[in-house]
Batch of 3 targets.
Target 1
Amino acid sequence: MRREPELGGSGAPDTGAPGPPTTVPHASSATGSLALSLALLPGAGHLALGQRRRGLTLFAVAALLTAVLVFRWDAFREAWSRGGVDGWIAARFLVVALAACIAASVLDARRSLASRHLPVSRMQAASAGRSPLRMAFRRFGANSLAMAAVYVIAGLYLLAALAPILAPYDPAAIENVLETRYLAPSAEHLFGTDEFGRDLFSRAVYGARVSLSVGLLAVIMAVTIGTIYGSAAGFFGGWIDNVLMRLVDVIIAFPTFFLMLMLVGVFEANLIVLVLILGLTSWTGTARFIRGEILSLKEREFIESARAIGLPSRLIIVRHLIPNAMAPVLVSAALMVGGMIGAEAGLSFLGIGIRPPTPSWGNMLSQGQDALLVAWWVALFPGLLLAITILSFNLLADGLRDALDPKTLMRKYV
């Protein structure tokens, strides 16, 4: 008796081969038009298309920027017209950021809606969903602590960028000290005042610019130097590797903190000097990371193929080796940013980093240590900001490690 072939959901025999191009399910044309019209309100178009997280993120950013523009309108106008270089940059940054948020919402909502109308084969849809980069983003997005850290870090950098607009007072202004010193936190002074009557919230906002800038710029310098140095040592090997790595061993032999103390004592500490000192004393770990990864990668088949077709060494390093060796470096860089911010705060706390009246979280802590029994808020708020920032970068590093190393994710279920 002849048996009829089993039918799939579409009524056609299920042969296992890739099916014909199909159209991804999409909203009706009315819903699409509504989504595009709502896209002018950042995040509304994504919410209409069912992209909840992206829509809420865009809406929150736009709402925050709009609130700053509305509630700090006088400060914005002052910064726009007569705010000096810092105010000029902050005012333009606010306008550009708000415009970019609206434009990104419109363009991304339009792209998402258009992609739902494109015919996509089953094989193409499956391969797009399993791409390594997409899977890494998906794993990172599933980590709630890492995503919370990203939002906190972005908020802190936004706070620092808009400091001339957000700060209600001049951070260095000293007026009637007898009447304004050591005022407790209130609606007029959110973080209270210090011994000279200066507003601590304004000083904390401006101090964020120093601490966050030092941490980020020093890590960029350290990662750049370490990547170039370690790539050369690992790729060329032989006596070049021996000479370069022995130099690294000599630098590591000096205690890093005491080396920084010596350099700060020789040169007058300011923002640029601190960035150079921290960056030039912290690249050795990145160099060793990169060297180890390249030593294992340069024997792989794809590198041998690149050599066989006559690709120059510099292109092999830049196009193939460094991109494949950057995963552990990114994790290390996220940890280094928190460490750099802590190092700057430690130097400023000891009085050899950023010196008053320029505010930084470190020297604010130093000024508050003598007033803990009288005015606890002087040291509490900069200490909390410092702890939250370092914790956020540590959580970000953990999220990057889990997202970029699939073995870490697999071990959770084994």
Note: The mean pLDDT is 80.
Target 2
Amino acid sequence: MKTVLTIGLVALSLGGCAADTTDGVPAESDDSSGTSGGVQQTLEQVSDARMVKPAEIEPGQVLVAASKVLDTSDTKYFVEPEGGKKKDDAGNTYTDDNYWNMCGPGAEAVVLYYSPWRSNPKYGRINTYYKEPYGPHVSNTFWTSPSNDKTYGYKTMWRPSILYLAEYSKPPTFSTAGVDGFSTYRTTGSKTSDICDSLNWEASDHASKSSYCGSGSYFYAEVSGSTSFHSHVVSDVNASHDGISGWAVWVAVNTYASSTHHLPNWSRSVTHAIAVVGYNDTANTYTYIDTCGPHCNSSSGNSSSTREFTVSQSVLESIMDNHVW
């Protein structure tokens, strides 16, 4: 990885939708839909030093707070656009089932919110139209941020960013734009490796690197399973550098492995992406943002218009497929 960033912490003891996540992370869907189940701009250059990866915190290496959650006052309102026949923020009617499968870019938008990308409003936060770059179905919809979302009945933030990432983000490794694939309708979602490439491409302000995920990349790396997951969450949530305090972790999960091992806001099994934004080692929980909105998943625990939830640490680690930290 990168040159180690020394984290200013007191020394104490302390203990990355419906398909295979290697090939894709398609997202959630509306139960009523019948499916199971995710512009380049020239801006001021950001130096590599601004995004040096924090050192992974190993058990017994340093002492950090037993509990920390990033500020979710904005990210709890990150919600994907709804699929089916709906209206956009301009009041125009559209029909688009691709929109049910945007959990990958949804969770990516949450992760990028806690990076320097947040200060680059031209990357996806302009109130404008967004459309699929190719494929059998292309719609042109208008989104704003923030939005009172009169059509859906809840507040949203950064929805244009989700659409930008899903449809326009194009690292040098991509042959087509967008982290979602649009060669089929509905989209099968996004690959974890593409999310990792896009995270590095966007957070680096489109910097040129030898790799866009893992060794040689700018910041983020993909990890299979739950290997070192707790250490990665603690490291990222406690990281502080150049005015950026705390990072989030992108996670691919099976939403419902069993009656005792599932996300609390899901009662059916899909391969899905969330963003972990905090931990509590006293209560043994993780805090996460799920951008699948209250209408995309009719499970009883998913009715809240705000998208912040907690889950047992052991449960999340048992249903995890991979993560990008």
Note: The CA atoms of residues 189 and 223 lie 19 Å apart.
Target 3
Amino acid sequence: MSSDLLERARAAAAFEPTPPRQQLAAKHVPFDTLCGRQETEQALDRAVRAGGRVVIMGGSGSGKSSMLAWAFRDEAAGLAPVRVPVAAEDPQVVSQPGKFAAHAVATVAREARLLSKRETRQLQASTRQETRTLGVTLGPPAWLATGGISAEIETVADREPRSATEHIEMVRNVMEMISAKGLQPVLVVDDADQWVNGGVEDDLVRGFFSRVIRAMCESLPAAIVVAADSRYVNLPGYQAAQNVLGTRIDIPKIPLPDGVARILAHRIRIATGGRLSDVMEESAVEAVSTVYEKHGGSLRFTMLVAHSALVAACEASVDLIAARHVNAAVALWAEIA
């Protein structure tokens, strides 16, 4: 096999460790598929459609964000995910229910304003625009084009609340509007897993889970999904919200070496249309699987090593990624760390 395919894989960032958000769903291989058990994506879907409150628990880089992107992709019929980012927000937004509610309304209103009447008609005709190999969702979520809901959300957002209670009521109004359109509203916070500092409880963990999430669970007629780092389990701030976050879904460790091989093969297929065996020796696949095992199930680090091995193979002008390229990448990143 020519080294041309390796170059194509490199150019397409086939093993990109942190894909752009709009590519996460397309690059995700469901854990249910990898593990042969309907305990992750299917469990989340069941809980969400029942209006449940769910925490997705996993280590850094384990695949929480990509799993949530896949679960709430546009073709997930009947769901209206309202994604509210928090990782880069002011600590008051993270720890005060009223501030968080205001942020949530502002976030969804900003997306609603991106839809003109002309764009709404286009989205109703075709909810997604796709590249040939990657299902890339462009612009606001497709559910915002449902029956004038974007304009209704803008109307709510134009109010001038004066208290935390009124801000929370505005979020509640948005969720009720979504439900009235026959959709299941889902408040999604997929980046609340970045606040542990050296194993010591962070004030943000305590404020977010014990105050903000508790208030949202008690006030909103919606499913709620929150990503959390597995290190939160023993923190009092997280434990204070466990009784309102009724369902916990743990990101599973994938079977080796087959699970890692399937992920690598999927990445190569959508990037180049080729097969994994066209770009990587079997011994190299096994070496990448060992990386996953030795680094706590971090798919992000595993893909980082695979990407570095791909670059090394391209620079050596060889036809296939070999185990030596993987091992060299591991040594490189160990030295940098």
Note: The CA atoms of residues 127 and 142 lie 5 Å apart.
